[in-house]
Specification:
Layout (H helix, E strand, L loop, with lengths): L3 E5 L12 H14 L3 E4 L11 H15 L5 E4 L5 H14 L3 E5 L8 H14 L4 E5 L1 H4 L5 H7 L5 E6 L4 H11 L4 E4 L5 H6 L4 E4 L6 H12 L3 H8 L3 H6 L7 H9 L16 H13 L7
Parallel strand pairs: 1-2, 1-8, 2-3, 3-4, 4-5, 5-6, 6-7, 7-8
Helix pairs in contact: 1-2, 2-3, 3-4, 4-6, 6-7, 9-10, 12-13
C-alpha cells in the first residue's frame, strides 16, 4: 500500500517546547519537493511520548491539511493501553490520515497472545489501514514473526515496521507473510538489504535530513538495482550512525536545527544534543553534502 522512503518526521518545537507549526509546514514542503514517499507523523521520532492527546491529533490534522493529498500521511497512534490506542487511531482516521502506525505496547510487557489481542482489538474497532511497529530496543517487548503471521490475516492490518535490524528476521517475515502484508525496515543501516530481501520500503530517521537520497536509494532497491542503490547510499551512510549518537530524536532534531529547518526545541525528559557531539555531527552532515546554516 505504501512503498519507498517514508520519513519518521520530527515534531518541530520552539525553544520553550511549544509546537512550531510554521516550521512543520516548511518541513512538509521540503519533503514533498525532495521526493519523500510518505510522512509518518507523531511516531517515536515525532516525540509522541511527550505530546498530549490534543497536540498529537493537531499535528496529524495539520500534516493531512498541509499535504493536500500530495503524499500519504501515516499517523503514529500506538500506546501501551489498548483503549488509548483505539482512541488515538480513531482520532487519526477522523483527521484524514491514510493509515495508522501502532508501536507494540511498551513497559507493561504483554505476552504474544496479549499482543495479538491488542492489535486485533484496535483493527476491529477502527476501520482504517494499520501498520504494526516492532522496536524491542525501546519497548521491552518483541513482536515475534509467528504473531505477525497471525495478524496478517486481519484485513486492515496492512504492514509491519520491523526495527530490529535483524536481516534473518526480515527474511523469515517475508517468507511467512510477505504476500499478505507490506514489510518495512525501521532501521536505516540495514534498510537497503531489507528491501532487497523483499521489503517494500523504509520508515527512516535519516530521511529527515537527506530525503532525496533516501528516496532514490529505496527506489533503486525496489527495482532490484543493487549497485545503484549502494552508490546512492554511500555518501549518506555515515549519517545512519551519526544520527544515533544520543537517543533519537535528539541528534536528528539538532541536525535539522543546524540546517536551518526547525527551531531548537525539544521536550523533557529529552535534552538538546550534548555540546561535545555537535561539531562531529555537523561534520558528518557536511561530508554527506548537506548544507548547514551559517
Amino acid at each position: 500500500m505504501f512503498h519507498g522512503s517514508m520519513v519518521a518526521l520530527v515534531t518541530p518545537m520552539n525553544s520553550d517546547g511549544s509546537l512550531a507549526f510554521e516550521a512543520l509546514e516548511h518541513l512538509l514542503e521540503f519533503h514533498i519537493d525532495q521526493g519523500t514517499d510518505a510522512i509518518v507523523a507523531v511516531g517515536t521520532t515525532g516525540e509522541s511520548a511527550t505530546l498530549d492527546v490534543a497536540e498529537h491529533c493537531e499535528v496529524i490534522r495539520r500534516c493531512v491539511q498541509l499535504a493536500e493529498g500530495r503524499l500519504p500521511i501515516i499517523a503514529g497512534t500506538g500506546a501501551n493501553s489498548t483503549t488509548e490506542a483505539i482512541e488515538l487511531t480513531r482520532l487519526a482516521m477522523e483527521a484524514g490520515a491514510d493509515a495508522a502506525l501502532l508501536v507494540t505496547p511498551y513497559y507493561n510487557k504483554p505476552t504474544q497472545e496479549g499482543l495479538y489481542q491488542h492489535y486485533r482489538a484496535v483493527a476491529e474497532a477502527v476501520p482504517m489501514p494499520q501498520i504494526l511497529y516492532n522496536v524491542p530496543g525501546r519497548t521491552a517487548v518483541d513482536l515475534l514473526p509467528e504473531t505477525v503471521d497471525r495478524l496478517a490475516d486481519i484485513s486492515n492490518i496492512v504492514g509491519l515496521k520491523e526495527a530490529t535490524g535483524d536481516l534473518q528476521r526480515a527474511a523469515e517475515l517475508v517468507a511467512l507473510c510477505g504476500d499478505r502484508m507490506d514489510l518495512y525496515s525501521g532501521d536505516d543501516p540495514t534498510a537497503l538489504d531489507f528491501i532487497l530481501a523483499g521489503g517494500k520500503g523504509n520508515i527512516s530517521v535519516t530521511a529527515n535530513v537527506a530525503p532525496s537520497a533516501m528516496h532514490q536509494m529505496c527506489a533503486a532497491a525496489l527495482r532490484r538495482d543493487e549497485n545503484a542503490a549502494r552508490d546512492i547510499e554511500a555518501p549518506i551512510k555515515e549519517l545512519h550512525q551519526a544520527l544515533f549518537v544520543e537517543s533519537n530524536p535528539i541528534p536528528v532534531k539538532w541536525a535539522l536545527y543546524a540546517m536551518g529547518l526547525i527551531p531548537d526545541g525539544i521536550r523533557l525528559p529529552l535534552t538538546p544534543l550534548s555540546q561535545a557531539l555537535r561539531a562531529p555531527l555537523c561534520e558528518a552532515l557536511r561530508r554527506a553534502g548537506i548544507t548547514l546554516k551559517a
